[in-house]
TrEMBL record:
Recorded topology in the membrane: Multi-pass membrane protein
Compartment(s) where it occurs, according to its Swiss-Prot or TrEMBL record: Cell membrane
Alphabetical keyword list: Cell membrane, Membrane, Transmembrane, Transmembrane helix
Family membership noted in the UniProt record: Belongs to the CPA3 antiporters (TC 2.A.63) subunit B family.
Ranges of residues in domain Na+/H+ antiporter MnhB subunit-related protein: 5-127
UniProt name for this protein: Multicomponent Na+:H+ antiporter subunit B
Domain of life: Bacteria
Membrane spanning residue stretches: 12-29, 35-58, 70-96, 116-133
Chief location category: membrane
Species the sequence originates in: Martelella mangrovi
Pfam families (UniProt xref): MnhB
InterPro entries (alphabetical): CPA3_antiporter_subunitB, MnhB
Length: 139
């Protein structure tokens, strides 16, 4: 299924899916969504782009090895939980900070950083599996 229409539409569709995955990630605590489903949508976008353009184009597009992305997400999720231990409260208790960035107060929570970590773990692991399967398919 490597038609001209698919190869032309795949980069636009992938970009739109990546944008939607970030939307789903960020709205996950107020409505259905979150890091897991956002990561799956992002990995699906990479899969569509990989089917249309090839594995080498995907590897150039994401810069880092997908398992490195998953490892960074696991580290971020773990650190989000350990912050509560250092504050002498139960593990995974939410904490908020309110830094002022360019004159705007931005609330950041450990819940959000945990969800971003889950997003990166799911995206990295599913993308790594897809790329491994796609490489084996063309050898």
């Amino acid at each position: 299924m490597n038609t001209l229409i698919f190869r032309t539409a795949a980069p636009f569709l992938s970009a739109l899916m990546m944008l939607f995955s970030i939307f789903v990630l960020l709205r996950g605590h107020n409505a259905p969504g979150g890091g897991f489903i956002g990561g799956l949508i992002a990995a699906s976008a990479i899969a569509i782009f990989g089917i249309a353009s090839g594995v080498s184009a995907v590897r150039r597009a994401i810069f880092f090895h997908p398992m490195s992305i998953a490892g960074a997400g696991l580290l971020l999720s773990s650190l989000s939980g350990f912050i509560s231990i250092f504050a002498h409260v139960p593990f995974m208790t939410a904490h908020w900070i309110y830094p002022v960035i360019f004159g705007v107060e931005v609330p950041i929570s450990t819940v959000t950083t945990f969800d971003i970590g889950v997003y990166l773990v799911v995206f990295g692991s599913i993308s790594s599996i897809f790329l491994a399967l796609e490489e084996k398919d063309h050898v």
